[in-house]
Amino acid sequence: MDQYTTEKLKSIVGAQNFFDSKEDKLVYSYDGTPVYRHLPEAVIFPEDAEQISKILKLANQEKFNVVPRGAGTGLSGGSIPVDNSVVIVMTKWNRVLEIDTSNLTAWVEPGVVTGHLQNQVEKIGLFYPPDPGSLTVCTIGGNVASNAGGLRGLKYGVTKNYVLGVEMILPNGELLKSGGKNMKDAAGYNLKDFIIGSEGTLGIITKVLVKLLPKPTKSITLLIFFNKLIDAGKAVSDIIAAHIVPSMMEFLDNTTINCVEDYTHIGLPRKSEAILLIEVDGRDSEVQEDAEIIRKIAVKNNASALKAASDKAEAENLKTARRSAFSALARKMPTTILEDATVPRSELPVMIEKVTKAAKMFDVMIGNFGHAGDGNLHPTCLTDERDSKALEKAHKAFEYIFNEAIKLGGTITGEHGTGLSKKQFLESVAGPAGVDMMKRIKCAIDPNNILNPEKIFTISPKCEGYLPLKREQIKNLNA
Amino acid sequence: MHNQTQYKDLLKVLPHDDILQQCIHCGLCLAVCPTYDITKIERSSPRGRIAMIKSVARSETELSDRFAEEMNFCLDCLACETACPAGVQYGRMVETARVVVDEAGFGTSKIKRAVKRFSLRRFVASKNGLKFISRLLRFYQKAGLQKFVRATGILKIFSKNLTEIEALSPAISEKFSDKQIKEIELPEGEVKYKTAFHFGCLMNTMFADINIDTIDVLKECGCKIITPKDQVCCGSLMGHNGDLDFALKLARKNIDVFEKHEYDYLISNSAGCGAFMKDYAYLLEDDPLYADKAKRFAAKVKDITEFIFEQKPEMKFISEQTPESVTYHDACHLVHAQKVYSQPREVIKSLPGVKYTELEEASWCCGSAGIYNVVRYEDSLIQLKRKMNNIKNTNAKVVLTGNPGCMGQIKHGTKKFNVDVEVLHPVTLIKKLLKNNQK
């Protein structure tokens, strides 16, 4: 990046918000995604929407790239810098601007930590359900950009079900406001829903209006142990078939159980082949009834033991243990590549078997866990990025898993997004027409391709004139 | 100038690649890091610091003042280790990095470093040294000089903060505890547990009463207590501040001293000392002469609340007491370094007449952090203010905590932020409620 651009950026945000030391570039070269990293040219903490607008206008002028970032916990490489880029960090925008108790909505800045918002609204009897594994750290802006899910997806859906409005700065520097407090809105294209999951390629989110629910009054958390993987799968199908919709139904396999136990010491049985962590919530009577039916289904499917959390603290510990699964797996091996292939939930038992098969076929260690209730699995390959052969095997295993998921009518990512790590598989699930439409939309909104380029898909540079075919012709062009 | 070749060699002492590699940069540590919470900049976070250490260890980047600053800005509270599902040993990395920047001469000036090292070695580690300083301080406090100095603001001449820091120095105990504790103390009835006691430098001089309380409570529990007179400082302050060599000398000395006695539990009432003594096993694992001994020594170390919780010794409490509203602050070196969380809570809740309120953010560092509150007073105040605010919100009359550093810091906070609360060690509260105490 040249001196002029650097000075210009400093004058926009102030020198105190501009960082380009080697240390600062280094610590923004990664996010939560394994293996991928890339140094940015600079890191910027903008103070208001106008500064963001100016930065984007400058980027179009001076042709540098802009990569928006929240807490950097993403798992698809969505916030990893690209060539010639500056990172825009939004973590300091962390105010809850308004909680509207009449409309049950909240206006928040994008840097608000998801867990903080939850705590704040729960204090007044309200509820913001989306709960990604990293909720103690990740931000609402990042959640919206990647359409984050979580443990409660089964009953409550994912981030997109809770976004009522978005304000964002478009790549040309204009402010877009979409949506609002109306529960119904049919005016024109539904732009807000289009922005959700756009992974920072269409604009930089500056404000989000979220929907809140009344907090369920009662919940019961159950932990069910199985000696056979297949029994756990069947129990899940039976519970859904019994028309019970738990607020969460999580699955952990033996490898994951052992790593989580190593971290939490909460007494998970190390020999169990599978655990289901199930929570039902709602009114007291229905919760008791649901829990009883689940208990019966568990027994019918050869559960080896069943445990109910005795109080809120214990339930919270169990959920925290589940959320730690991905990182806890790093106890086994230094690199954990986590994917989130998702299938229609009726296909879950088949998919679990396919994952086990992939591990055997490609000779890789895979810990498997995930959101059993909504068909969203997190097969995690335990490997070592310093060993290129092992890494190769891991990629092959995932290629197999993705293909099998697609064959079952599934998708390559349920909640992490496409980013860098899954873009080669996008076409196989979205189809050529789908990807082509995405690219054309991106080109229309961001013609210079300055905002988070290389994410989701790669836009090939436009060619004008004849394509040089001979070496001499290229020499001429370079001259 | 910085000696580049010298520090290149030192990089070899950084943790081996597997330790560095274990961090999968998931970012879960960011939620609990007190320094990241202030700056919201990645390099002030555990994940950022590890990335920087990794990069230096692999010779991809060089040491710098910015690197040194972030290593020293860290409170070393280890909340990130508790939050880390992958089990990354952050504390070891950051402490090694501190040794490296210290040796290479980054961050602090040479004079400051020398003074810090000299005072830690000369005054804290040597019992007589600390006693000497303490006697001076005691004289100073007694003689009304303190009032004079505080009134005239003489200290302001030296440093803007020195007056504030002076206020941190707790009242020196009338008598040092090692003079009052016999080398072997026996319970009134039969001996149920054979214990040894490490009296800690600060506890011995500044909080001598707590040591006496500890001995009395242990006696009530039926413990025989051996307190070797020739024991030395545990070495934690030096170890955490870049002077590991000296810390190891002290560790070996303590191992030798205690090995001469027969005991099952080595009781500590200072979280910092307990944590460091439990760590002897790791610190000396490559020392052929001491590796095994250190392991044996470390396995016996117990915090006093840990001991009481595990052994559930019988204690006779007074039957009528006035209800006391109590809260508890986790010393980082208990909760994060030793993973002792529920034990003190359970012990406190089981005491008669205690009305316990859980402290919001109880496991968040109070800013004391060894000598952090002296060397980085302004930064430590940010944490203290937060802590005092949370304490105030409990409306408790007593805040309990198991580390002299935290006690001093929170006591300072009661004055600085005007919070009306008594700061006690759990063992002091136990003693107060003992029947034997009422005679």
Structural notes for this entry:
The complex is a heterodimer of chains A (479) and B (439). Among the domains of chain A are: 3-89, Uridine Diphospho-n-acetylenolpyruvylglucosamine Reductase, domain 2 (2-Layer Sandwich); 96-214, Uridine Diphospho-n-acetylenolpyruvylglucosamine Reductase, domain 3 (2-Layer Sandwich), CATH 3.30.465; 217-331, Alpha-Beta Plaits (2-Layer Sandwich), CATH 3.30.70. Helix content of chain A is 37%, strand content 20%. Chain A is built from 16 helices and 20 strands. Chain A has helices at 3-13, 22-27, 49-62, 114-122, 140-146, 153-156, 191-195, 229-241, 254-264, 284-300, 312-323, 325-328, 348-361, 388-407, 423-445, 471-478; strands spanning 18-19, 42-44, 65-69, 85-89, 96-100, 105-108, 126-127, 163-169, 175-179, 204-211, 213-214, 218-226, 248-253, 274-282, 303-308, 335-338, 365-367, 369-371, 376-377, 380-383. In chain A, helix 1 packs antiparallel against helix 3 and helix 8 (229-241) crosses helix 10. The two termini of chain A are 24 Å apart. In chain B, the strands form two sheets. In chain B, strands 1-3-2-4-5 form a five-stranded mixed beta sheet. In chain B, strands 7-6-8-9 form a four-stranded parallel beta sheet, with helices on both faces. Chain B is of the alpha/beta class and 439 residues long. Chain B has four domains: 4-104, Alpha-helical ferredoxin (Fumarate Reductase Iron-sulfur Protein, Chain B, domain 2, Orthogonal Bundle), CATH 1.10.1060; 110-168, no CATH class; 177-310, Glutathione S-transferase Yfyf (Class Pi), Chain A, domain 2 (Up-down Bundle); 319-438, Rossmann fold (3-Layer(aba) Sandwich). In chain B, strand 8 (398-400), helix 25 and strand 9 form a beta-alpha-beta unit. Classes of the chains: A alpha+beta (479), B alpha/beta (439). The A-B interface holds A 19, 21-24, 26-32, 34, 45, 71-73, 91-92, 94, 113, 115, 134, 136-138, 259-260, 262-263, 324-331, 334-336, 384, 386 and B 17-18, 21-22, 24-28, 30-32, 40-43, 45, 47-48, 51-52, 55, 61, 64, 66-67, 70, 83-87.
